């Protein structure tokens, strides 16, 4: 898995969710017992954890912002952090799989 493939998966996700308003975020995801916003925030946290692991630093909780409309930006930021950390191909593949699974569950 390459950085380009992860970036493409994130672009597809952000293209899917970037225009959503609050009612769409509050709707239930197709899998699990959570809202779409909760599902995307879970993805943000998972990518942030992968970035922290790749950097060799501590994992930190990503804040859940009051406005769900910020979630696409949070996805972009934590993905950029992961790429800047120089993550290996296996980690990039795991992140891309998480992004793809999240897109499917929305």
Task: Provide structural commentary.
With 106 residues, the chain is mainly alpha-helical. The chain has one domain (3-105). It has helices spanning 3-17, 22-26, 36-55, 71-84, 89-105. It is globular, with a radius of gyration of 13 Å.
Order of helices and strands: HHHHH
Q: Tell me about the largest β-sheet.
A: none
Estimated helix fraction: 55-70%
Count of strand segments: 0
| Inertia-based shape | globular
The class by helix and strand makeup works out as mainly alpha
Specify the number of helices: 5
Low-confidence stretches: none
CA(first)-CA(last) distance:
23 Å
Mean pLDDT: 96
Q: Over all CA atoms, what is the radius of gyration?
A: 13 Å
- Quaternary structure annotation: single chain
Count of discrete domains: 1
Give the amount of beta strand, in percent: under 5%
Offer a concise description of the structure.
With 106 residues, this protein is mainly α.
Provide tags for this entry.
single chain; 106 residues; mainly alpha; 0% strand; globular
Indicate the topology.
Layout lengths: L2 H15 L4 H5 L9 H20 L15 H14 L4 H17 L1
Helix pairs in contact: 1-4, 1-5, 3-4, 3-5
